């Protein structure tokens, strides 16, 4: 199993393509530039099975409808943000100089932590709110990797001054759900470079 990081949009939000040897693929946080993202996925011969969202801020969902409609695949999101895909005032696109994002509801709502299996992929869902109320991280034990969204960054943490954000909740999420993972776990954040749990535990100034 492998992954590819693709920064998209003006905020360079990391979209991730998780794929296996047969090129079946999970698309994580398709944030913008749907046409270009679709073209890249097709050039690579990947076969998307689903879209998994770490949360529903505008810079993480801008290409959801393009990708979903092109392959007719389901979208997964936490139920605490089930309205955010539909409402520009919730996902934040209404407050930015851009076309407001108002798509369709997700197909599947994450209600609790547990195992999520999609085709050959098995991911552990970790609820990591604080940056937003429905933020989740996806942990794949087999490849020792966690997709942390905007909860934990390389040398930083997510902002908490947006709708539903809470600093104390975010710090608790990071300490109780992410820093408890094995030290060598690769952290793939929503923005910026990858890191490891050990590096963030020992050197992140916010922790």
From TrEMBL:
<keyword id="KW-0479">Metal-binding</keyword>
<keyword id="KW-0378">Hydrolase</keyword>
<dbReference type="Pfam" id="PF00753">
    <property type="entry name" value="Lactamase_B"/>
</dbReference>
<feature type="domain" description="Metallo-beta-lactamase">
    <location>
        <begin position="12"/>
        <end position="191"/>
    </location>
</feature>
<dbReference type="GO" id="GO:0016787">
    <property type="term" value="F:hydrolase activity"/>
</dbReference>
<dbReference type="InterPro" id="IPR051453">
    <property type="entry name" value="MBL_Glyoxalase_II"/>
</dbReference>
<dbReference type="GO" id="GO:0046872">
    <property type="term" value="F:metal ion binding"/>
</dbReference>
<protein>
    <submittedName>
        <fullName>MBL fold metallo-hydrolase</fullName>
    </submittedName>
</protein>
<keyword id="KW-0862">Zinc</keyword>
<dbReference type="InterPro" id="IPR036866">
    <property type="entry name" value="RibonucZ/Hydroxyglut_hydro"/>
</dbReference>
<dbReference type="InterPro" id="IPR001279">
    <property type="entry name" value="Metallo-B-lactamas"/>
</dbReference>
